[in-house]
Every structure is written in structure tokens, then in C-alpha cells.
Amino acid sequence: MTTFAANPSRFAPLPSLATMGKDFTYLVLGLPVGITVFSFAVTAFALSAGLAITLVGVPLLILTLLASRWIAKLERERARMVIDEPVAADRPLSGSAMERSKALLRDRSAWTGAAWSLLMLPIGTAGFTVAITLWSTALGFITSPLWYWATDSSDTIPLLDSTSAGYSALRVLIGLALLPTTAMVCRGLAAGTGRAARAILG
Questions:
Q1: Which terminal residue of the chain has fewer beta carbons within 10 Å of its beta carbon, N or C?
Q2: Which pLDDT tens digit goes with each residue over 66-88?
Q3: Which residues contact 59 (CB under 8 A, 6 or more apart)?
Q4: Residue 162 φ/ψ region, left for φ over 0, alpha for ψ in the -120 to 50 degree band, beta for the rest
């Protein structure tokens, strides 16, 4: 029977403080980035489709795909914050303006950038919510003796409402116990999101 002492390598080490900071930053930025690129993609592609029967629709689609290609590049670079894996570079566009426009219509990076822009809203919202909730809970419990005395205690749930020394100490212990779990969950979520971005965006 294998024991913890006999096989400690089974357990993943805690992330470093630098890694925790990168994971938190990556996940928190996912919400504003997600809102921005989702809003852009939906609006730009809807306008391009709506104006397709006019002379404006096609140039607008070309510009939208060019922006989507830039978004794909930005998101690949952002993923490097949380995954230590090589990131592919875009194939350069060459030729005349007409040739580059035709190439954009067939460009994988442009279309995957558009797809990722749509996915970033739910993914970014989920990552932001998890990171903020877990870290605020853990750190809030740990620092509660410094500020809990000023809260309005109704004593409905002693652990959450009591300012006694016993419950204050218990909250600190719970917060300390939550720290490694919080760090590992955010590490897994950030790395998973980064690898998803790499898989989709190339």
C-alpha cells in the first residue's frame, strides 16, 4: 500500500507567489477582456452581415477579421502568463491590398480569434468570479480580527457574526486552510483557460 510519506511526488506543489499573482491577474482580466471582445465581435459581425448588400459590408468584414486576427495574437500572448508552452506566430499577410483581403477571408487566425471572442465572455466571467470569490473569502477570514469588530453583529451564525476571540481565531484558521486550495484551484483554472486559448487560437 502506497503512503504519502513513501510517495510524496504524487502531490502537486503549491504555486509560487509569482505564479499566484499571474494566475489571479489572468483570471481577473478575463472579465473586462471578455466583455470587450465579445461586444466587438457581435457588433462588428452583425453590422457586416447587415450591410452585406451594400458596398460597406465587405470592407467592414475585412476590417473585422483583421481586428479578430489581432485579438487572437493578443490572447495567445496573454496565455503565456499562465502556461509555459510555445505560442505559434501568425502567418504574415503579403501582396497587394486585394490579395491580403482575400487571404484574410481564409485566415484561420482571424476566424478562430472571432470564435474565441465569443467564448471569452462566459469563460472570463467564470474565471473572474471564482478568483475573486475564493481569494476574498480566504483573505477576508485571515484579516477578520483587524476589522470585524466594526461590523454589525447580529449573532445569527456565530462563525460569521461573532467578534469573540475564539471565533476570530477560528476564522483565521479557516482562511489559512483555504489558501492552498484557492491557489491550486486558480492555478488549474488559469492553466486550463490558457491551454484552451492555445488550442483554439493555435
A1: N
A2: 999 999 999 999 999 999 876 66
A3: none
A4: beta
The cell 476564522 sits on which residue? 171
Angle 190-194-199 (CA atoms, 0-180°, nearest 5)? 150
Segment 128-162, tens digit of pLDDT = 999 999 999 999 888 887 766 656 555 566 566 66
Specify whether the CB–CB gap between 62 and 103 falls below 8 A.
no
Q: Where are the domains of the chain?
A: 17-201
Rounded Cα gap, residues 63 and 104, in angstroms? 9
CA dist 13 and 75 (Å) reads: 27
DSSP, residue by residue, 139-164: HHHHHHHHHGGGS----SSHHHH--S
Between CA 19 and CA 73 the distance in angstroms is 22
Terminal C-alpha separation, the chain: 43
Q: Give percent of the chain above pLDDT 70.
A: 81
User: What pTM was computed for the model?
Assistant: 0.82
